[in-house]
């Protein structure tokens, strides 16, 4: 990607122009970053108390029963969003769906173990692990560029 800055004293406010041959993931991520501003906190409940969870502190979201939970270093919190809503809201903020019941933050992942036939094991920085379902293996490989 080339970046060029043009200074013009006649310009009243900054203007950003993105030129590309077609819309790619890189262009989409750049636009999201330019438009995004601050990440919106997500309300989570634990022991009858609500807490504001910053997306950068969440390692993963998973569904269990009829509830969705957010896993952070300080514990698990119930959230009021459904997984598809979280996927839409956080997809461009480094979160990716790995199964029907789980979304992970890529920066919370230590490594992806591809030695299992037909699936991928996700090992988190805290030592816990999860698995990419076969349905989402292609998407994960695309995200990882493999």
Keywords:
alpha+beta; OB fold (Dihydrolipoamide Acetyltransferase, E2P); 146 residues; 3-stranded antiparallel β-sheet; 7-stranded antiparallel β-sheet
Describe the protein.
This protein has 146 residues and is of the alpha+beta class. 21% of the residues lie in helices and 35% in strands. It has three helices and ten strands. The strands form two sheets. The protein has a seven-stranded antiparallel sheet. It has a three-stranded antiparallel sheet with strand order 8-9-10. The protein is globular. The relative contact order is 0.12. The model has no long low-confidence stretch (mean pLDDT 86).
Describe the SSE topology.
Elements: H1 25-36, E1 42-46, E2 49-53, E3 58-64, E4 67-72, E5 75-79, H2 83-90, E6 95-99, E7 102-105, E8 109-113, E9 120-124, E10 129-132, H3 134-144
Antiparallel strand pairs: 1-2, 1-5, 3-4, 3-7, 4-5, 6-7, 8-9, 9-10
Short description:
This protein is α+β, with helices and mostly antiparallel strands and 146 residues long. Helices cover 21% and strands 35% of the residues. The model has no long low-confidence stretch (mean pLDDT 86).
CATH class: Mainly Beta
- Per DSSP, the total helix count is 3
N- to C-terminal distance: 21 Å
Total count of domains: 1
Q: Quaternary status of these chains?
A: single chain
Largest sheet: 7 strands, antiparallel
Q: Do you know the CATH topology?
A: OB fold (Dihydrolipoamide Acetyltransferase, E2P)
CATH superfamily: LytTr DNA-binding domain
Overall strand count: 10
Please list the strands of the largest sheet in the order they lie side by side. 2-1-5-4-3-7-6
SSE sequence, one letter per element: HEEEEEHEEEEEH
Fraction of residues in helix? 10-25%
Mean pLDDT over the residues: 86
């Amino acid at each position: 990607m080339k970046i060029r800055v043009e200074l013009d004293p006649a310009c009243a406010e900054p203007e950003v122009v993105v030129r590309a041959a077609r819309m790619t993931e890189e262009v989409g991520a750049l636009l999201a970053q330019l438009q995004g501003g601050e990440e919106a906190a997500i309300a989570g409940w634990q022991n009858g108390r609500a807490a504001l969870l910053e997306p950068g502190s969440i390692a993963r979201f998973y569904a269990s029963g009829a509830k969705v939970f957010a896993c952070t270093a300080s514990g698990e919190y119930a959230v009021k969003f459904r997984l598809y809503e979280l996927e839409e809201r956080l997809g461009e903020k480094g979160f990716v769906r790995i199964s029907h019941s789980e979304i992970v933050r890529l920066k919370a992942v230590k490594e992806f173990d591809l030695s299992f036939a037909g699936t991928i094991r996700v090992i988190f920085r805290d030592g816990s692990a999860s698995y990419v379902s076969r349905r989402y293996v292609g998407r994960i490989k695309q995200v990882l560029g493999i």
